[in-house]
Amino acid sequence: SDCTNIAGDISEYERMIEVDWDLDPRDMYKVTVEITGSDRAGLLSDLMMAMSETKTNVSTMNAKVNKNKVATITLTLDIKNLTQLEYLMTKMRRVKDIFSVHRMTST
To answer: Which of the residues in the chain have pLDDT under 50?
Structure first.
């Protein structure tokens, strides 16, 4: 009933069906996040501390620094739900010298 594709289109209501999602709270989803920040000693350690404090598993990590000393770190995280992801991204944004944190989308 909250689908924007049919909102206000009375002719589509007859096609609607009731659904329930079989969500197991133990399910985990792989989410890739890209973080950029000023390269400094301890930057990666500070980010990993944020993951450790929230007991978030990091399944893959890639880090590189460009000639302007900007670090780009890509993490693939095991995430339970969107609320957890938003919390983690906020926590990462608060790490000293972080410029941006955003979720990568698959193509």
So the answer is: none
Element (H, E) at 51: helix 43-53
Q: How many CA atoms lie less than 13 Å away from 17 in the CB half-sphere?
A: 3
Q: In what order do the strands lie in the sheet with 58-65?
A: 58-65, 70-79, 29-38, 98-103
Largest CA distance in the chain: 61
CA-wise closest residue to 44 among 69, 66, 72, 68 = 72
| Confidence at residue 105, expressed as pLDDT on a 0 to 100 scale | 86
The 10 Å Cβ neighbour count of residue 43 is 20
How far is the C-alpha of 51 from the C-alpha of 67, rounded, in Å?
A: 27
Question: What is the distance, to the nearest Å, from the Cα of residue 73 to the centroid of all Cα atoms in its chain?
Answer: 13
CB 98 within 8 A of CB 36: yes
Residue 32's pLDDT is 97
